[in-house]
């Protein structure tokens, strides 16, 4: 097959298989395999022979977005950005980010996927094999009014899909710059903060009698199983177990209150 990409840049990570894939137009004498990376810069064209099934993920990034992130991350002229052409390379840091992005998208975690995507692009430029650049030191963080508005927005939209760019727009920042400033201010990524707040809301709702599937939807989880995974990760127990324990504590407290009332003169 032929690959033509006149607009934008492409990152391709092999997830499984690939031994039946090789490049025909002068690339390395190698075949695909799980974990290897291909980078196809804007304007790239190539010819491939594919003789077996394999699984991979493609990340397409517009050139203007790529250059903007390069300029603001490294404080360099965007015209200095040079994206290498890479075929079947071992790049563990980038592979990890692209896997995280893929898993997050499959699980409906759009915010986590966006964070992994922006971090992957940053990891590319700081990788010694592809430039070894050093990011600018973080200073200042988010302004107090931006912090307040961001947290208010999160609380008001916990039951909906929260996107990184939606949060960045509050402070009129790029998604990547906002992500770095948020972590500097709060010690966790935007996704980490949102995930924690969703679990906390679920904990408070489990005091009632609403079905757990309904609570999952109200807290922004894609399904009951998604809530269960996140809840167990955050608390060590499942939502149903947490509800049972909480109900038991409530019953014990009610009995103690009744006993105290009976003993009162």
UniProtKB/TrEMBL annotation:
Has keyword Transmembrane helix?
A: no
Pfam families recorded: HTH_18 (PF12833)
Gene3D superfamilies documented for this protein? Homeodomain-like
Q: InterPro entries of this UniProt entry?
A: AraC_XylS_family_regulators, Homeodomain-like_sf, HTH_AraC, HTH_AraC-typ_CS, Tscrpt_reg_AraC-type_HTH
Ordered alphabetically, the record's keywords are: DNA-binding, Transcription, Transcription regulation
Q: Taking every annotated instance into account, which residue ranges of this chain make up the domain HTH araC/xylS-type? A: 148-245
- Superkingdom classification of source: Bacteria
Protein name in UniProt:
AraC family transcriptional regulator
């Amino acid at each position: 097959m032929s690959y033509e990409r006149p607009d934008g840049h492409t990152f391709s990570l092999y997830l499984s298989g690939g031994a039946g894939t090789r490049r025909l137009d002068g690339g390395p004498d190698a075949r695909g395999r799980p974990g290897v990376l291909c980078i196809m810069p804007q304007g790239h064209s190539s010819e491939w022979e594919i003789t077996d099934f394999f699984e991979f993920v493609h990340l397409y990034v517009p050139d203007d977005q790529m250059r903007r992130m390069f300029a603001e991350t490294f404080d360099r002229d965007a015209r200095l950005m040079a994206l290498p052409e890479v075929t079947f390379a071992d790049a563990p840091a980038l592979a990890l980010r692209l896997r995280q992005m893929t898993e997050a998208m499959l699980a409906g975690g759009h915010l986590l996927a966006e964070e992994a995507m922006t971090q992957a692009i940053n990891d590319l430029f700081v990788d010694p094999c592809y430039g070894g650049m050093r990011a600018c030191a973080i200073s200042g963080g988010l302004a107090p009014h931006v912090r307040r508005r961001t947290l208010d927005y999160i609380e008001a939209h916990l039951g909906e899909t929260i996107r990184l760019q939606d949060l960045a727009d509050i402070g009129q920042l790029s998604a990547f710059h906002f992500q770095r400033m948020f972590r500097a201010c709060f010690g966790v990524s935007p996704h980490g903060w949102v995930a924690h707040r969703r679990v906390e809301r679920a904990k408070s709702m489990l005091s009632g009698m609403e079905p757990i599937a309904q609570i999952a939807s109200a807290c922004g989880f894609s399904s009951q199983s998604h809530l269960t995974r996140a809840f167990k990760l955050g608390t060590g127990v499942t939502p149903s177990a947490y509800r049972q324990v909480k109900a038991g504590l409530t019953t014990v407290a009610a009995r103690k209150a009744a006993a105290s009332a009976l003993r009162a003169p």
